Amino acid sequence: MKVVLQGIGGLLLAGLLLYWVLHDKDPQALSAALWRASWGALALAAVVNVAHNVFRVLRWRWLLDPVRAHVPFRPMFAAVILGYMTTWLIPGRVGELVRPALLSARENIPLGPTLGTVVADRLLDGVAIVALFAAGSLGAKFAAGGASLAAEVRVTAFVALAVILIGLAVFVAISSLGGRLDGWLSRRAAPVRWAGNAAVGLSRGADALRSPRRVVPILVHSLLAWLTIGLGTWIGIRAAGADIGFSDVLVLLPMLALGVSLPTPGGVGGYHALMQLGLTSLFGVDPTIAAGAGILMHLSVVIPILILGPVLLYTEKISWGDLVAAGRQVKALGRGAQPLEAAR
């Protein structure tokens, strides 16, 4: 019932956001804008966007290095893509849980720290997005009146960065103190003991951030992943007819990331709305072209995953039931069905 309600809520939100994007658009003008797009360039944008996952996997491998060194690339790549596919298709962002659980089961890596690396992974995404936003804002060409909205986005982005850095610092601190916390936690009440052990188990995913040898490639791969996403997005937006620069797209990254994170099926509605808002308000792009760019770029992000995902299910001999079971396994941890310290 909870999943059903999440699905209904997500569909309603997606419908409202799409209505906001499309209600004032001339259907014929929008259709013409879509057909004028460069489909070859959109295909290139799709390839570049998928390619960013190479850097994501390499970063994940470095994060996992203290737990298991030299994890093979192929199962990690499959876990990432299948996690995305599950997120697009199932309400509740189950894909975020499928990725670590699937890799943990296939490579026999402890689940607690594997899940923790995905938490660190998401926090590092936030750091990279804000860093690139700051760099892009130096060279972006804002439309008249767009600078004021950019200033608001800048404040929001840097507040988010502060929260993310605090989260990373706490994560690393718990990782450093994990061994000393075990004795203290053993004397606490059951709920406190479980929550503490869960935090310690997850914090092992941040062990790599305590090592200068590891943290440099982790940060480099974070920036490379989001630069690649920015490049694919820039190619796609220009293919849709919007004349903006690469620096402009870096400024859009926080808004697009927020759009994808909204709880709608496959980012539908949220991505489109934030794409249109950013292109029109910041850079003066025609609203019809901006709406078309959101539609075409969203398709170039989602369709490759929906094609590649089933191929990986077949080649890696993974069933859809395996993905659902993987997500449920991690949710069971959250309900206390299996303590995270046992997964350590």
Please tell me about this protein's structure.
With 344 residues, this protein is an all-alpha fold. It has one domain. The chain contains 13 helices and no strands. The longest helix has 41 residues, at 146-186. Residues 334-344 have low confidence and may be disordered.
Can you describe this structure in just a few lines?
The protein is mainly α and 344 residues long.
List its traits.
about 350 residues; mainly alpha; globular; disordered C terminus
Percent of residues in helices: over 70%
Q: Give the helices and strands as they follow along the chain.
A: HHHHHHHHHHHHH
Instruction: Label the structural class.
Output: mainly alpha
Quick one: biggest sheet? Answer: none
Query: Span from first to last CA?
Result: 32 Å
Mean pLDDT: 86
Number of helices: 13
Which word captures the global form?
globular
Strand content: under 5%
Oligomer: single chain
